[in-house]
Amino acid sequence: MRIWLKRAVLAVAAITVVGGLGMGLSQAQNDPISQRKALMKSNGDAMKAIKAAVDANGPATAVAPEAAKVASNLKAAAVHFVPGSDKGDTKASPDIWANLGDFQKLDNDSAAAAAKLEASAKGGDMKVVAADFGDLGKSCGACHNKYRLK
Ligand code: HEC
After folding, report:
1. Does the pLDDT of residue 10 top 90, yes or no?
2. Does 92 contact ligand 1 (Cβ within 6 A)?
């Protein structure tokens, strides 16, 4: 009886925690601006980590997971550029929605550059890694220059 009660209390507590998390998530999902900014911020952090490894001339093993993170962040970010979400606390240019095909191409190109960097990092040649890191940085800038307001 005692044990049963404890379990029941624990079960209710667990449901409360899960319910709370679920609500937090669905609220965040309703806010495409904060979703995409969080993903982009994670890109910035990953690029800093990669730069540190490149500047130190290794280890390449430190680069691969960060590059993979950038590739997946960029793929995930695309869906959060919802039409009409150019209002509010955002630097997204309204031009995005007038040129969605171009924007998505730049996003895919950048994700591909990140995947290429992940592969060269796994290969272990820091010269190639440094070159691919430079290309990845340029692909971020190619989109920011056109579609991110100053
Ligand atoms: C296809 C376009 C595109 C690509 C590619 C892209 N970004 Fe962005 N990025 C944006 C846009 C648009 C914003 C502004 C988002 C907003 O304010 O709603 C942004 C914002 C940011 C921000 C600021 C986030 C914040 O907290 O406000 C950082 C940091 C960033 N990007 C880093 C990167 C890095 C690093 C890469 C490359 C690995 C990259 N981005 C690739 C379009 C892009």
Report:
1. no
2. yes
**pTM of the predicted structure, to 2 decimals:** 0.85
Ligand 1 center to residue 40 CA distance, Å?
5
Q: What is the DSSP string of 24-68?
A: HHHHHHT-HHHHHHHHHHHHHHHHHHHHHHHHTT--GGGHHHHHH
Phi and psi, residue 148, nearest 5°: -115, 120
> CB of 105 closer than 6 A to ligand 1?
no
Tens digits of per-residue pLDDT, 55-78?
A: 999 999 999 999 999 999 999 999
Q: Which of 109, 140, 150 to mutate to test the pocket of ligand 1 (most atoms within 8 A of CB)?
A: 140
Closest CA to 117 of 136, 89, 143, 103: 136
Q: How many A from CA of 93 to the centre of ligand 1?
A: 11
